[in-house]
Specification:
2 domains; Immunoglobulin-like; 3-stranded antiparallel beta sheet; about 30% strand; flat; about 140 residues
């Protein structure tokens, strides 16, 4: 009995177990915050930007793109496969359901100059910087 009490005290005072516990907790919390979907890549130049994302299993009619100011929002939905009578899943790992993601772009977007292409599950969205947001050179008048 005394041995069990000493073992429990020893495990309570074990700094490595505390470290492992904190490490698991940290990574679990940071991973859950970083799991935005769909994942995107964005690259830009002075006057435009391109956003790409992979959203397989959707048709272009299932995807909605909206633009407001600097933000571009992607929405869509993928429905699960229909099972025939008597069938059941043995393994079900692929996602289905609604998706929604808003990405802040590096400048105000000209909503009239947004183009999108969807091919083989990859969405490419090209946006142009709004004229009002472009830097302007100011001339100086001398007296």
């Amino acid at each position: 009995m005394l041995l069990r009490e000493l073992e429990s005290i020893g495990s309570f005072l074990d700094p490595w177990k505390d470290f492992e516990r904190m490490n698991r907790s940290f990574f679990r919390n940071s991973l859950s915050r970083s799991r935005e979907f769909p994942l995107v890549n964005v690259w830009k130049d002075v006057n435009s930007a391109t956003l790409t994302t992979e959203i397989p299993g959707l048709d272009k009619a299932d995807i909605e793109i909206t633009v407001v100011g600097k933000n571009i929002t992607l929405r869509g939905e993928r429905t699960p496969e229909e099972l025939s009578e008597g069938e059941s899943y043995h393994r079900k790992e692929r996602w289905y359901g609604k998706l929604s993601r808003t990405i802040e772009m590096p400048f105000v977007i000209d909503a009239d100059k947004v183009s999108a292409q969807f091919k083989r599950g990859i969405l490419n969205v090209h946006v142009e910087r709004a004229e009002a947001d472009k830097p302007r050179k100011i001339s100086i008048i001398s007296e």
